[in-house]
Design goal:
CATH topology of the largest domain: Immunoglobulin-like
Distance between the termini: 75 Å
CATH class of the largest domain: Mainly Beta
Structural class: alpha+beta
Number of strands: 23
Number of helices: 5
Number of domains: 2
Shape: elongated
CATH architecture of the largest domain: Sandwich
Helix content: 10-25%
Oligomer: single chain
Strand content: 35-45%
Strand order of the largest sheet: 14-17-11-10-19-22-21
Length: 397
Amino acid sequence: MTRLFAILLALLAVGATLYPARADQPDYGVVGQIQNGTPGGTVPEGLEVRLSVFQNDQVVDTLTTRTDAGGNFAFSGLKADPGYSYVPWVWYQGASYFGRQVSFVNVDPVQRADITIYEATDSAEQVATQLLSIAVADVNPEENQVVVFSLVTFSNRDDRAYVSRPMGMDVGFLPLPIPADARNIVFHGGPRPEDLLRTPQGYGVAMSLPPGDLDLAFAYLLPYNGGRLPVSVTPAFPVERLLLLVPKGTMGAEGAGLTPHGQVDIQNQTFNLYVATGLPAGKPVEFSFTGLPEPGLLARLASSRILPLLVVGGVGVVLAGLGVVWARRRRDRRAAATGPPEDLAGRRARLVAAIADLDDRYERGEVGPAEYAERRAALKAELLAVTRQLAAGEGSG
């Protein structure tokens, strides 16, 4: 019996050498630290950190934890399967702040994603509009409407996030220089349609303005009668430079201290350019588009459907043609200080977090079923489009 037991032990030993024990699977996780970018600002202990779990084009879960006394947080036990990624984010003083998007493909099992928050202020003393460009993208005489594209560059020169919450809003409100009679407002990237709000003071979006610069692009329709279209916008912040572009031909612009600056070519379209500088905050900026056509006097712009996007790409050309190289230097300094602009992965991360936040608000009863279904469908559609672009290999360019 003893001899048989010894033989079994020997066989087990041989088997152990032939089939070594399988190494433990790594514990995948996301760790990070909340940092306050405002000098003297602190990170409250116990600040809730959320981790949006993203699988392909779906938000499948939201995990939560809290920071320790040093602002550190950690999530463990995460899946490393292909298609899974994770976005940590926090809500602080009326604003959302995001860490980088994390996946576990050919990387270390523990990934770091720090988040920078800022103290909030509702003072706009350090906020300005560096550039407000307004371009006539199309004129439709048959329907008596003008398609307008606008690109706005906000600059927050404070060390605090600008978070204005009028009328007791629970989120930040960023006013936009949009005429009161504008219709069909559509954003190009950035805010979602449901972020657009209208208050007695005018249009705006539900977002805060952290330190640094922020570009927002949008289009809208303006009705007109006759050959002249009066336009009035009231900027909430001082406008350092106003650019107006109208298609070459009989059209022009006047008022608001505008001066003609010749013509510029943008993507095979020629525009008359008008410039004004030093416009104060809170005072209406009033100007008129002149020479608008009656039916049949101006051919429809062939590329009207895509012209707003072309104007975005051509702003740098317009500014360079004027010798305004400060815009490029500003962007270069911003890129050196904060890294590259948000790419598709970053945009997808924001969408993931937005869906998770909407789910939480619905569970708390803050959003009704109909609104929840509509907003979530819109978010998922945008998220799916971004995911397909990523899958096709498109990046930030």
